[in-house]
Amino acid sequence: MSFAHAAAAETSVCNLSAWSTDPDPNGLAVRSGPGTGHAVIARLPPPGGVAGYDHAAEVTITGSQNGWFRISDAIVMDYEGDKPDKVLFKGEGWVSGRYLGLLLNAPTLHRGPSPDAPVVAQLSFIAPDGSAIGPDSYTVRLRACKGDWVEVDASFEDRHVHGWATRTCSSQVTTCP
Asked: Do 145 and 16 meet the contact criterion of CB atoms below 8 Å apart?
């Protein structure tokens, strides 16, 4: 194996949470490895109507490799507070970052996974209609992660930015502190 191939195959370790955005009625495929060539070992239901809840499955992310995210579990949170959380998957599996979402709480994106990395985008601004737009207004696509940082493509209307963020939130009913 060449050094370049070995480096490309390394898994970055991280500790994040996100939710499934895959609308496929068959659900989000959880695979045995990072890529479509690996076996499907579980499926997470599509957002909405999951076991009687209106929320998507939430996953704990422990690593990433080439746009794929290693997860350790998937649950449906009971945000109403009267039912136990429903465990959908436990163990190790991989899901595509194209089908994961989360909220951004930090107002900036950085060039790399460090507070000392240059800022590449400000996510808070005043829209032409005078409304305040914050980082939680963006739709994000996950690309990679490292520690508590996540590399994202973020979009709000016709504004598209790319960079690394920290202080993310996987709550589907409110922003996190």
From this structure: yes
Residue 6 phi, psi dihedral angles, 5° rounding: -65, -40
Contacting residues for 52 by C-beta, under 8 A, at least 6 apart: none
Joined tokens for residue 70 = 């290693």
Give residue-wise pLDDT tens across range 126-175.
888 888 888 888 889 999 999 999 999 999 888 899 999 998 877 666 65
Q: Cα separations (Å) of 30 from 49, 133, 142, 147, 171?
A: 19, 34, 16, 22, 21
94 three-class SS: strand
H runs (alpha helix) in 52-102: none
Here the tokens at position 121 are 């985008």
Inter-residue contact 102 to 16 (CB < 8 Å): yes
Whether the model clears a pTM of 0.70, i.e. scores above it, the answer is yes
**DSSP annotation of 57:** P
Q: 43: part of which helix (H) or strand (E)?
A: strand 40-44
- Retrieve residue 9's tokens: 């195959």
For residue 139, give both structure tokens: 């739709």
* DSSP letter, residue 176: -
